[in-house]
Amino acid sequence: MRTTPSGWQRLPVSALGGGIVWLALVTSRLAGLTHLTLIDLLFLLAPLTIAPLGLAVIAFEEGLPQVLLSAAIRVQPVGALLAVVAFLLPIGPPAAILATAWLLVCAMAALGALAYLVQGRSLHPVRLATAAAVGFMAFGAIWLVLARGGIAPIGLSPIIVEMTAVHFHFTGFAATLMAALLLTRLRDDRGVARQVAMAASLLLVTGSPVLALGWATPVHALQVAGAILVATGVVATAAVLFFKCTSLVESTPARVLLRLSALAPLLPMVLAVEYSAGHVFGFPTLDIQGMALIHGDLNALGFSLLGLVAWSIGGSAYGETGAQRLALRFRST
């Protein structure tokens, strides 16, 4: 008889293997064996661990959406390893070609997400946030290819191009997915927590595109507006996670990780708004390296990684078997 995995056994093998590879990359950098930057290492955490953790807790309806998602999950380790090699090579066409492998993985998952929306005929916030999260990761993968190819469109600096890839993998994919997971678990809640979670998911769905438009167009005030939308969405999600964690996951380790995850983004989100405002209005703020060190580390390692691990191992406080998945049938809502 097959037994249902429990606790830490629920973690995807690909995420565990990716974590080992990522720690090896960090060690090699500290030993001076590679020239990976902090931003490089932050990004690589996404394909190696964040993506497999996140994709594993998503389930679309049977048919084309699930077929595409399952295919993306199967080839994810290959795409992630080729992304690593792309960072070990000098910036240029060969590195961009290797990075394209990760883009193909993300594009496959994003097509599944699009089919999920079309097949469900619903824009319920859970559906919308789930599909948007996967789509954001694919958009971020486009910017990865540009970054490794040394292409800086619309006058952006190379470091901003790479930071865009980082943003759409962590805040775009991980944070938006965690908001969808939260809303899923609160589906029977009739109190303010569910309303806050729903608003947070919509803020995250709209915030990142607005922020990107601020960088891509002369309307730089959109940078500030987008940063405020994203920061508010993340902080609102974190607040509900912190105060409702005992009703979200069943295991004590998962509850501890979820609460630690919820505390992590508070400072990073303030810094994100300050950085965008400083860029637009010209007052002094942290430089990009400072943002990567504080905002990037806390958001990636704290909120995204700890949070997705907690969701993966936590089971459900509602008594469901296995890790809670997003296969909710919101066809009529």
Q: How does this structure look, described?
A:
By secondary structure, the protein is mainly alpha-helical. The chain has one domain. The chain is built from 11 helices and no strands. It has helices at residues 13-30, 38-56, 64-88, 93-120, 125-149, 158-185, 192-216, 221-244, 252-263, 266-281, 288-313. Helix 2 (38-56) runs parallel beside helix 6 (158-185). The longest helix is centred in the N-terminal third of the chain and has 28 residues, at 93-120. 51% of the residues are buried. The model is unreliable at 317-333 (pLDDT under 50).
Distance between the termini: 37 Å
Q: What do the pLDDT scores average to?
A: 86
Query: How many extended strands?
Result: 0
Radius of gyration: 19 Å
Helix count, per DSSP?
A: 11
Largest sheet: none
SSE string: HHHHHHHHHHH
User: Which structural class is indicated by helix and strand composition?
Assistant: mainly alpha
Domains (count): 1
Proportion of beta-strand residues: under 5%
Unreliable stretches, pLDDT < 50, 5 or more residues?
317-333
Q: Specify the helix fraction band.
A: over 70%
Label the overall shape: globular
